[in-house]
Description:
By secondary structure, this protein is of the alpha+beta class. It is about 40% helix and about 15% strand.
Amino acid sequence: MTVAVPTAVSRAALTLAGAPVRTACRLSARSRTAVYRVGLMDGRSVVIKLYAATARRNAYTERAAMRAVTGHVLVPVVIGYGNVPGHEATALITSDLGPLTLGSAVRVGQISDARGLKDLAGLLGRLHRAPVQPQAPRRPFYEQATSLGRRCPPSRLERIGPALATITADAPTTLVWCHGDLHADNVVLDRLRAARHLVDFTDAAVGLREADVAQTLVMTDALSPLRARTVTDAYPLALDHQLLAAWAVFHTMRCWAYSSPGDDRALWERRLDDLSRRTPHLFRTRRPERTRR
């Protein structure tokens, strides 16, 4: 939607991109980030992402991830990054690749669903080959589990206890750059047959490839055996499928925890139930109490 240009957007453009704003269209607004497509007075079209003060670490990580994976996957060009004068926000300014996403192309039938899933798997494989530097941002699993625990009743975490145990059982041997939220709408196409560009590295961090692949399975509703195989068969690197299944349970529970009461919560409840039937060893079920005679 086209909006009056927020002051933070104008100052970010002038300070970090070197040009005043002509037009601004808000693409998304969340609790800690807002994204705008901005036309500059010098003719350029850019995307400006504003991070609240509480998301400053995400801003730094997104910029670091995009720099690290360049050469392995296509990403937007970073034009500017830094604090916005007079505001607590941090801004990341990138080139504008246009509005066409892999997701929109799949939804209108220009690209098949199976082709879209295979494209995501190939992108993940290339992303996971990017070198990881010692200083690269990491998000330990205990942080993720603690965050989930703040939103879940203890009985919920108890239910997926075996999945949590599987994730924490072994020390990771290979760490990779994880996108953290790769689905079809985070892949932008210049044209239908153009190379795919990854966007939105807000949740990027160094971690396990199984965690990242599982996140994509969950966010694309590819947890059924057939759809999951479409992704894993096209993914070019080795996977620990037991670990992959455990991460799928964890991510699904996290989506349940962050869902809104009503239809959204019911959707994730059904997906958890489906996973408990497919992988019962990753769930703990209550045993019926014995009645004394």
